[in-house]
Structures are given as structure tokens and as C-alpha cells.
């Protein structure tokens, strides 16, 4: 099959744990794609706009024959099916799906940047990504273990289900 891609999943509204676990299945059912691995779920404090509930986050790896833009469209359709709204930046959300990495592609366009531009700053992305691939390198920042060591784990906790 096609390209190995990593997708971040987050939710803090309408039963977030349910939203995230439902997204695992829906991502696995996208056309021309196959779910390879899913991380544990993690709870994290909100960034930016603080007056909102904590988030539940996870990361999945998929193999896909979709182009990055087709993949983005499929992920946005899943978000819409979960009643995702975007009233303002960093607003609470039922479901947020972000392409973190797509093979070794680098892309910088108004609607899509790969690798995800802020992933290396976010423990709630790096910790679950490291869980499913401890040897991954994130361009241009390098080895994930080194990135993870530089992040504060204080507000990102693995959830035992």
C-alpha cells in the first residue's frame, strides 16, 4: 500500500474520550487507507484559550493511497460528522484531526503544512507519537526522544482505560 502518515486526534466536548475512540474507527474506515497503530489516550490542559475543558488526545499511524489533500478532505469530513465548529482559534471542539506527517513530504501551503508546524512544541502530540514510533525523526527538529525530553510532561497524562 501507500504512504505512512500520522494523524493527531483531539477532543474536549461531547464526551471527548468517546469522540477520540470513535475517530480511531472512522480513520480506519477511510477509503484507500488502513489503520496501522493507535496510541493510548492522553489528557492535556488547553493551549491558548484556557477557559475550556481539558482535552483527550491520541495519535494514529495509517497507510494511505490518498494524496495529502485528499487525506485532509477525508479528515475534515470526519470532523464535520462529529459536528466540529470553528468559532475562533483554539476554541473548544468535538473533534480535531491534524495531519502530523505524511511520509517524508514537506509541504507549506495556506491550507496544509506538513510536517505540522507546531507539533514539536506539544507534549500532547509528541508523547502519543513517540508511543507508537519511538524511532521517528521529525523534520527539521530530529529525533523524537530528544524532542520529548525538552517538553514539560506536567499537563499531559496518559489515561489507563
TrEMBL record:
Enzyme Commission code: 2.7.6.3
Gene Ontology MF terms in the entry: 2-amino-4-hydroxy-6-hydroxymethyldihydropteridine diphosphokinase activity
Keywords recorded for this protein, A-Z: ATP-binding, Folate biosynthesis, Kinase, Nucleotide-binding, Transferase
Record lineage: Bacteria, Pseudomonadati, Pseudomonadota, Betaproteobacteria, Nitrosomonadales
Residue ranges of domain 7,8-dihydro-6-hydroxymethylpterin-pyrophosphokinase in the record: 6-133
Name assigned to this protein: 2-amino-4-hydroxy-6-hydroxymethyldihydropteridine pyrophosphokinase
Function: Catalyzes the transfer of pyrophosphate from adenosine triphosphate (ATP) to 6-hydroxymethyl-7,8-dihydropterin, an enzymatic step in folate biosynthesis pathway.
Organism annotation: Candidatus Methylopumilus universalis
Pathway: Cofactor biosynthesis; tetrahydrofolate biosynthesis; 2-amino-4-hydroxy-6-hydroxymethyl-7,8-dihydropteridine diphosphate from 7,8-dihydroneopterin triphosphate: step 4/4
Protein's gene: folK
Record has Transferase as a keyword: yes
PANTHER family linked: 2-AMINO-4-HYDROXY-6-HYDROXYMETHYLDIHYDROPTERIDINE PYROPHOSPHOKINASE
